[in-house]
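Study this protein:
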Amino acid sequence: MKKAIILLLFAVTAIILFGCQPEKEEVKAEEVGNETEGEEMEGVLGEGEIAQFELSEVKGVNPIIYDETDELEIIRDLFSSADKEPGIVNMSDPEFYLKVVMEDGEKRYLNLWLGGEGDTASLMDIEDTHTIYTVTADIKGSLAGLINR
């Protein structure tokens, strides 16, 4: 008798758990390609001008603060030329941590991977870890030059 009650309890629990699963959304490959094509990093930062940005190798420790016009121009170029990459990403720990402060006081935090010679640089907003943005070699070179000053 006890075995029957336990078996019934397991069956009811399984039915309840199965019913609580979220619906799976099907996304067609064509739709994903159209959404990401040509999408730029500026959308991640929102509207407005960059007042300053901070760069550190260890999150929040000894950041280098950039707020000069030529330095801000490099970071603006970085964001305006970044292309959103479709798909799921699995990244290693970032090489650098960026904190971008907008003129209205809003702050955005990003991870940066410069990679080796010939590689593209990658950016990731820490609030959206399923999306990366890649940057052209020219902009990557400008940013690397800024970091190595």
Remarks:
- The beta strands are 50-56, 64-66, 83-85, 96-102, 107-113, 121-125, 132-135.
- The radius of gyration is 22 Å.
